[in-house]
Amino acid sequence: MLPESTVNRILELGLSRGAEFAEVFCEESDSSNVELLDRKIDSINNGNSFGVGVRLLLGDNAYYGYSSDASEEALLELTENLAHSLKEGRPGHLHYPEKKPVTDRHPVSIDPSSVPKTERLDLLRQIDAIAREHGDAVRQVRASISEKKRNVLICNSEGLWVEDSRQYSRLGISTIAEKDSGPQAAAESPGVLGGYEFFQGLDVKTLAGNTAASAIRMAEAGYIDGGMMPVVLGNGFGGVIFHEACGHPLETEAIRKNASPFTGKIGEAVAQPLLTAIDDGTMANRWGSLNVDDEGHPPQRTVLIENGILKSYLSDRIGAGQVGVARTGSARRESYKFAPVSRMRNTYIDRGPHSMEEMIASVDFGLYAKKMGGGSVDPATGEFNFAVQEGYAIRKGKIAEPVRGATLIGKGFEVLPLISMIGDDLELAAGMCGASSGWVPTTVGQPTIKIDRILVGGR
Amino acid sequence: MDSQQAIDYVLALARENHLRDVDLLLGREESMTVRVLNGRVEKVDQSTDLGLGIRVVSEGRTGLAYTERLEQTAIEKAVLAARENALLLDPTEVVLNTEIPDVPAPGTLNLFEPELESLAFDDLAAFALEMESTAKKSDKRVTAVPYASVGKSRGSYRVVSTRGMDYTQEQNSVGAYCGALLEENGLRKTGSHHWSARVWDPGQSGKLGRKAVELGAAVLGAEKIAGAAMPIVLDEYCAPQLLGMYLGAFYAEAAQKGQSRLKGRLGEQIAKPELTLTDDPHRKGAQGSRYLDPEGTPTQPLNLIEEGRFTNFLYHVESARKEGRASTGHAGRGFSGGISTRTHNVVLATGAHSLDELCAIPERCLLVTDLEGAAGCNPLSGDISIGVQGFLVEGGKRVHPVDSVTIAGNFFELLKQIEARGNIYQPNLTSTFIPALLVEGLVVSS
Fold first, then answer.
1. B88 contacts chain A (CB < 8 A)
2. Which part of chain B is CATH 3.30.2290.10?
3. Chain B residues with CB inside 8 Å of A248's CB?
4. CATH class of the domain comprising B3-218
C-alpha cells in the first residue's frame, strides 16, 4: 500500500525531530451501499477511500495528521509540520519495521465482489415484499445492504509492520407503520465481520416480519406514564445501555483524564455478584472483532467485571501508559482520518441464572423494554439517556399493553448495582459507536435483565 | 493530479463514454485542532480531506460513486461504477439543470475570513492553555478539565456539470470547546461551553473557561422535581437544538415517501398566528448560506410557516418534478453521497423578552439549559422524550437546579404551544436561528 522506503523515511524524520514514537497508518477502503426505499431501488453508491495517518508521540503528548495525498513528498511535509509542534524531545532510536504475518480469525467465504449487484437488489425487493405482507398499516419500508472492505497497513518505530484486511457486511431494515395515533418505525440491522455468505444465511423473513409487527404494535400503543419504576430490559440490543453507561467510562480514554466514575475502582464491587461483563475482540466474524487493533496490537477477551467486581479497563497505547495497565488491544479508529483511542469491541453482560418469566413475574408495575433504540452518555458523570423502540407495561407480573415514547434516564454507576436479575438468553447485536476516534463497528449484548428502579421518561 | 485536472478528466471520461449528464462535487477541508490537558498540549490534529463525488444521470436513473484518490485509475473506476449503478437503479425524475443562473459572487455571503488563515499552532495552543488554566482556577470544586480544545477549519466545495455548471463556495471558522468536571459532596457535574466565530478573539479563552465552570457549578446539587405538566422555557441554546431535530418534516421528499406528518396539510394552521418560520439562504455569515444549491438551482428565502399556516415544503429537482413543479433550491450533497433535501438557515424571529423575563411570565416553570441526547426524539412521529437539566423557577427566581427529569410532548403540538420568544439568538456560528422559547403543555417526568 505504501513503499517501505517511504514508511522508513517518515519514521526516521519523526524520530529525528524529537518524537519518542512514530507510527504510520495507511488505509484503502472500498465501500458499496445499495438502498431500497418506497418500493424502488433508491440509491446505489460505490466509494473508494484512501489516505495515510502519521502519529508522533512524545511523553503523554500525541501529534496526529493525515492526508489523502500519499506521495512521499506530501507525507514528509505532513510529518515535518507535526514535528514543528514538538517543543522538546531528543532524537530517538528507530527499529526499522519488519513484516509480521497476521492470523486471520475472521474468514470470508464468499468474496462480495464475486456476487452480481442484481442479487442484492433482489434481496432488498424480497424484504420489502415480506414487510408489506403485514397489511396496509405498513406505510414505508427502507432496506439497505452496506459492504466495506478496509485494507490497512500499520507500521511503527518499534519495528512493527502489519497488514490486515477487514470485510464488513451489514443489512438494514426499517419499517414504518401508521395507525390513528401517528407513525412509528422499527428497525433491525444485523452485521458481521465477514463476506457475502452473511446475506445468504440470513432469515430475512423473520427479520423483516419482526420490524413490521413491531412498528404496527407501537403505532397502536399509547404513551407510558413516566416515573421511577422497575424495568425488565430485553436481550440483544438492550446491551446498549451497558455499552454507553458503563463501557465508555471503562475506556482508558476517560479514565486517564479522571473523567470517569470508575477511575481508581479496580478491585471494588460495582455490581451485584451475579453480574459478569466482558469485552471480547476475538469472537470469530463478530461485527466488533479484530485481527489486530488499529495500533497493530492483538485483541483479547477482556473481563471487565467479574461477579460484580471491577477487573479491567479497555486500553490503547497512550491510555495503558498513563493509567498504568496492560494494553488490551482496544485501540480503534474509524479510518485514517482519526488517531486511535481505546474503544469497545464486542461488549456484553454474560448469562445469569434467571428466566424471563421470573423477572416479569417479580414486577407489580413497570416497563418491559423489549427493544432499545439509540442513546447517549456523558462519560464523566455517567448520565445517560436512551429511547425505547418497543416497550410494554408490566402489570401485576404480566406483560400488558404496548407503550410508546419511553426514555430511560440514569447514571451508569448507580444503575449497575440495581441489576438484580439476569437471564440465560444472551444475544448479541451489531451497532455503530461514535466517539473521539470516529464511528467504529461494535457489538452490544446481554441476556434479559431486571433493573430494580430507573427513571422512565414518558408523558 | 490536482483538482482542476481531476475535474477535466471526469468531463473527458463523460464525453468519451457518451454520458451526456454527469455532475461532480469536489470537496476539500483542512483543519487543525489543538487539545490540552493538565497545562500541556496533549494532542494536535492536522488534516486535509479531499474527495470527488460523481453522479451519472441516464434516462432519469442516477448512479453514484466517489473517490478520495485523485488519480486517473481511481477516477475512471468511479465514473464507470456510477454508470453501472445508474443502469441498475429504478427510474427517477432526475434531470440536470441546463440553464445556469447568474448569481452574485459567493464571497458576498461573508463566509470566508482571510485573516483566520494566518492563525498558527502557537496561537491555538496559547488559547487552549489559557482556557484550561482559567477553568481550573475559577472554582475549587473543579476536579478535571477533560475537554479543552480549539481548532480552525477551512472548507470548500465545487460543483461542475457537463451542462455547464461551475460553482465554488468556500468558508472557514475557528471554534473552541471547554468541558470541566466539578465535584461536591460526592456529586459530579460536567459544565461545558463552546464558541465559534469567523473573527479570532483570544479574549474568548478566559471567558469560555469561566463560563463552562459557571454552568457546571450552577447545576451542582441539582434535585428532581415532581412530575407534572408545566411551562417550560428552553434557553437560546436548547431551543434550536430541540426544534432543529424535526425540520425533516418540511421536506417534500419525506412527505412523498410517507415520512412526514405534514403530508397533505399545506395551508393548515399548524402553529400560533404569531409564528413565522423562514428558511433564509442569503443570511450574511450564516453557516447554511449559499446562492446556488448543488443541483444548480438558485436559492431564495422561503416561509415554511407564515403567521401559523404551513405554506411550503422544500424541494430538490427530483421531488419537485414528481409534483410537476420547480425545485425550491433545497438540494444538499456531500462528495460521498447523493442528493438529499436540506434547509439552509432556519429563522424564527426573536421576541421581546430576555431569558429572565421569559421565565417570569408563568408563576412556576422549568428553565431548560441542557438537553441530554436525542434518542427519545422521533422526527417521524414528532414525539419528544428527552432528559434535561436546568432550573426550577418560581416568581421569576431560580429556586434550585434540576436534573434526573425528562420532558415529553410532540413537536407538532409544540408549534401551537409557543407562548413567547426570547430577544436574542445564541451567539455562535449556526444555521438554526431560534431564540429562547416559553412553551406550555409539555410534561415533566421524574
1. yes
2. 3-218
3. none
4. alpha beta
